[in-house]
């Protein structure tokens, strides 16, 4: 890539990263000068922007709602933000051993659905196997009331098949807005459902698409036959914990045999629907093994210590690079500063492709570790360049040959780190996964910093222009 185009790309990324990482309130001096004119800032800390220029008062408070800065805050995990952690045990005594995993996943999705509906930000619900036991680990950042958390997750899912209340709008449009309030009970619940599973080609004329097959108990089959008889051509909404999950239209009366829900499902959608139906069908009582409340004070203390450790480490690295490598060290430090901004930008935004990263204490440790790896790539390059100088090369050739010889070492070390991070993320618990994720992001950004940013900056030094 052309060096001038690359430097403009780096400048653009730097400006965007600085903007994203700016806090919501900028502390400005009460009095300063802009273009030689005296300017008096007042009310900046109260989101009320008043400016005095040349003795005249200007009220710029209308700019405050635009939220120019602070739109992408850092997200912290349970150990830093404070909240509640619950360890739940699923009672599998009434479940066939072949359905253990299905039952556990069903229970996990129900609890996840509840906490999301409750509005808990950055909540995580994970399943675990401990010997013959099946457990769920629920982390609720910001929820400090243990009783609220217990009430939120400690009840068995309630599955209901309901009929739409008779009304002109509902009868004229099967796709009318369906709520729990405008439907009535049919008496058919999760207790009448044996199992739901994904099948293919169960409906005549459909030989390829995935469908969801529902098997009822004998008593449930009788209820379902009566319900379908009086609802032919109408939707039959299905609710889980009073929230609608599907509203299939009854195409014909089903006297015997399993029911089939068909439609334009993807395989993933059909699997999720089957899991939700099983969640209300499988009796999986939940008992609380452990409950723990984490205070925000402990989290704030951990954050402060981590920031202090990061600042001290970064300062030592910056000073060492300048002292040992001179001008090369200054270039490496500039690249390291941009690396830090870019990494924090990914943490805050997820590059709009993935959810923003929730930083735990282990995640911060992964980020600090990746800072050292970012510097390591520059050190490899500089040492290779020294070897080229000792061999008699000068000018641009030193830079090109040094980067070429260092690249294989940089590539191999970073790829091995990414493989390790992938294994930790795939098989680790939530804390380990947080460390692995931040480490992997840091390694990827450090490769861009070392290969593109540092090399581009060096190309503009006079000694490498000839």
Your description of this structure?
The protein has 466 residues and is of the alpha+beta class. Among the domains are: 3-66, no CATH class; 295-464, Up-down Bundle (Multidrug efflux transporter AcrB transmembrane fold), CATH 1.20.1640. It contains twelve helices and 17 strands. It has helices spanning 3-21, 78-81, 100-118, 146-153, 168-172, 218-230, 267-281, 296-325, 327-349, 361-390, 396-427, 430-459, and strands spanning 31-34, 37-42, 50-53, 56-59, 75-76, 83-90, 124-130, 133-141, 159-164, 183-189, 193-200, 210-216, 238-240, 243-246, 259-261, 286-294, 358-359. The strands form five sheets. Strands 1-2-3-4 form a four-stranded antiparallel β-sheet, with no helix packed on it. A hairpin with a 7-residue loop joins strand 2 (37-42) and strand 3. Helix 3 crosses helix 7 (267-281), helix 8 (296-325) packs antiparallel against helix 9 and helix 9 (327-349) packs antiparallel against helix 10. The radius of gyration is 30 Å and the shape is elongated. Mean pLDDT is 78; it is low at 41-47 and 62-66.
Features:
single chain; 466 residues; alpha+beta; Multidrug efflux transporter AcrB transmembrane fold; four-stranded antiparallel sheet
Q: Name the structural class.
A: alpha+beta
CATH class of the domain at 295-464 reads Mainly Alpha
How much of the sequence lies in strands comes to 15-25%
Overall shape: elongated
- Could you spell the SSE succession in H and E letters? HEEEEEHEHEEHEHEEEHEEEHEHHEHHH
User: Percent helix among the residues?
Assistant: 40-55%
Q: Quick check: average pLDDT?
A: 78
Sequence of strands across the biggest β-sheet:
1-2-3-4
Low-confidence stretches: 41-47, 62-66
Largest sheet data = 4 strands, antiparallel
CATH architectural group of the domain at 295-464: Up-down Bundle
CATH superfamily of the domain at 295-464: Multidrug efflux transporter AcrB transmembrane domain
Radius of gyration: 30 Å
Helical run tally: 12
